[in-house]
């Protein structure tokens, strides 16, 4: 019985530190993310950890089909990284804006406004300075605080359909205060040590 209690305590302690690995596919949203900057697809609040977004953009017969989606970084968390895991071809537009809509009219009003492709795979776009971006941007390199953000991905020069995989990485920034759960973990550890000494 004592072993069962100790095991339960330890599982409860370590499960609190687990983070999510969420995958969002364009097919989950009626086969297409929004192409409207004033009405982007809303992913809601990101889970703590990594969220991967898989989608398609296209440019066929002068018809552009951008992907525009918005999400929230929860209070007590921050957005550490935005990076492409895969992207077909080069020269696609990537924009990141503060708020739940996007301003497509002027790249310099966006936090990040640049072209991306194969060479940019696994590059944290939040670390780009304005001079490193193709269209400038207002973001000071580094993580983004809690709040609403909108991403705009588009192809408008190369004919075809292009797939991409984008990773959004969040982490906790608040130092948790001592709580009953922490006290329970300490007690469980002490009981485990004591039990081993008795054996």
Question: Explain this structure to me?
Answer:
The chain has helices at 2-15, 180-198; strands spanning 20-25, 41-45, 49-60, 63-65, 67-73, 77-87, 92-98, 112-116, 147-154, 160-172. The protein is 17% helix and 39% strand. The protein starts with a helix and ends with a helix. The protein is an alpha+beta fold. The chain contains two helices and ten strands. It has a single domain, classed as Jelly Rolls, CATH 2.60.120. Strands 1, 3, 4, 6 and 10 form a five-stranded mixed sheet that branches. Strands 2-5-9-7-8 form a five-stranded mixed sheet, with no helix packed on it.
Keywords:
single chain, 199 residues, alpha+beta, Jelly Rolls, 5-stranded mixed β-sheet, 2 helices, 17% helix
Describe, in short, the structure shown.
Keywords: Signal. With 199 residues, the chain is α+β, with helices and mostly antiparallel strands.
